[in-house]
């Protein structure tokens, strides 16, 4: 690409958007990231991620951050323990087997690596983009909730499941899969809950049967993140007369749902710290494609929202680095975006199919 200044604006400071910004800056290119959160620490960033060699680690290598990732990552956390729900005895792991080099890292730690690597001021915190409108010459105007706007030669929607940029390219909206994950957790697990810590081991514990599952996932600093997964209508709490803040009532409902499971597993429901967070699983259509539009594109969940079974974050980072590479090697922005989309769209469609099958394997449809 020629060396004329290019106004690249990324909407969303998630892993994919930050990977794009990092690689562009490594090549001396200017980029601005708009993020609605007030700061990096404004909210928890989620659980642990297994970073795959061919995708997430390839992106980190392109970003010059692989060594720093390795220093923080937990290789022993790749371990899976699968227990029979009734007896709590070990059974074979039923899910897909990733490559042997997929160390775990907390999402917040990984995001921090990218943020620390960017030039000061690259991320504009507390700036909420409400939409984008074309200016007629291949450039775009971003509209912000404070009434201001920002013009760009390239807008990249990296703003997640409920992207405000996606409608400029696609009419698709996320749909509910029928699966809900309820999140809770344990602090200082090794000291305060040693028997549970031993049962979980170094990585992730899984028990699944009858279209429901319990998962316990090691995070850093002694935290254990717990997910209670099941199939239910999206309004299951309303139908059950539950308010999420009524932790005791939600716990009683879940214990009834998992009645008959081994007490060592039900410990995850009885003794967790804090309340519950409802995380219904939404996805975009598969394949999700769009006709190329000059000056605008998508990456990560904004482009290919899929079930959370280990591929989404890896693909988002690879999206970001692939787009950055295209922008610094192709002769024009339009050529770069076309080259990127020609790689990303078929790759993400296959991954989304694989993730849907994995979710159905873990939490089978009740009519199957």
Structure description:
The protein is of the alpha/beta class. It has 2 domains: 8-77 and 99-174 and 284-362, FAD/NAD(P)-binding domain; 177-282, D-Amino Acid Oxidase, Chain A, domain 2 (2-Layer Sandwich), CATH 3.30.9.30. 33% of the residues lie in helices and 23% in strands. It has 12 helices and 16 strands. The chain has helices at residues 15-26, 56-62, 66-72, 107-117, 189-192, 194-200, 236-239, 247-257, 263-270, 301-304, 312-329, 333-362, and strands at 8-11, 32-35, 48-50, 80-82, 104-106, 123-125, 129-134, 140-144, 149-152, 154-157, 175-186, 204-209, 212-218, 224-231, 273-283, 296-298. The strands form 4 sheets. A 6-stranded mixed sheet has the order 4-12-13-14-11-15, covered by helices on one side. A 5-stranded parallel sheet has the order 6-2-1-10-16, covered by helices on one side. The longest helix has 30 residues, at 333-362. The radius of gyration is 21 Å and the shape is globular. The protein starts with 7 loop residues before the first strand and ends in a 6-residue tail after the last helix.
Q: Which helices and strands, and how do they pair?
A:
Elements: E1 8-11, H1 15-26, E2 32-35, E3 48-50, H2 56-62, H3 66-72, E4 80-82, E5 104-106, H4 107-117, E6 123-125, E7 129-134, E8 140-144, E9 149-152, E10 154-157, E11 175-186, H5 189-192, H6 194-200, E12 204-209, E13 212-218, E14 224-231, H7 236-239, H8 247-257, H9 263-270, E15 273-283, E16 296-298, H10 301-304, H11 312-329, H12 333-362
Parallel strand pairs: 1-2, 1-10, 2-6, 4-12, 10-16
Antiparallel strand pairs: 3-5, 7-8, 8-9, 11-14, 11-15, 12-13, 13-14
Helix pairs in contact: 1-4, 1-11, 2-11, 11-12
């Amino acid at each position: 690409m020629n060396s004329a200044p290019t106004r690249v604006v990324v909407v969303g400071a998630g892993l994919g958007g930050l990977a794009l910004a990092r690689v562009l800056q490594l090549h001396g290119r200017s980029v601005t990231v708009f993020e609605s959160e007030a700061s990096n620490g404004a909210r928890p960033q989620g659980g642990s991620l297994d970073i795959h060699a061919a995708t997430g680690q390839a992106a980190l290598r392109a970003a010059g951050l692989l060594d720093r990732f390795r220093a923080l990552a937990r290789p022993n956390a790749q371990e899976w323990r699968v227990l029979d729900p009734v007896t709590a005895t070990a059974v074979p792991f039923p899910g897909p087997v990733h490559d042997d080099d997929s160390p775990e890292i907390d999402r917040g730690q990984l995001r921090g690596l990218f943020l620390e690597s960017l030039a000061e001021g690259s991320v504009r915190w507390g700036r909420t983009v409400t939409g984008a409108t074309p200016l007629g010459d291949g450039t775009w105007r971003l509209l912000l909730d404070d009434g201001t706007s920002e013009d760009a030669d390239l807008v990249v929607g990296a703003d997640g499941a409920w992207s405000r940029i996606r409608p400029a390219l696609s009419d698709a909206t996320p749909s509910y899969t029928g699966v809900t994950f309820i999140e809770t957790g344990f602090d200082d697990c090794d000291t305060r809950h040693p028997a549970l810590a031993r049962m979980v081991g170094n990585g992730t514990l899984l028990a699944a049967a009858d279209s429901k599952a319990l998962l316990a996932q090691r995070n850093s600093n002694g935290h254990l993140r717990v997910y209670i997964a099941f199939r239910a209508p999206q309004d299951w709490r309303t139908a059950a007369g539950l308010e999420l803040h009524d932790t005791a009532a939600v716990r009683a409902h879940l214990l009834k749902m998992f009645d008959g499971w081994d007490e060592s597993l039900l410990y995850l429901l009885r003794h967790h710290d804090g309340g519950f967070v409802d995380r219904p699983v939404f996805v975009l259509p598969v394949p999700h494609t769009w006709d190329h539009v000059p000056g605008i594109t998508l990456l990560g969940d904004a482009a290919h929202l899929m079930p959370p079974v280990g591929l989404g974050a890896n693909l988002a980072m690879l999206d970001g680095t692939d787009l950055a590479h295209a922008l610094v090697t192709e002769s024009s922005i339009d050529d770069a975006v076309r080259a990127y989309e020609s790689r990303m769209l078929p790759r993400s469609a296959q991954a989304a199919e694989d993730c849907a099958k994995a979710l159905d394997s873990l939490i089978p449809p009740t009519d199957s």
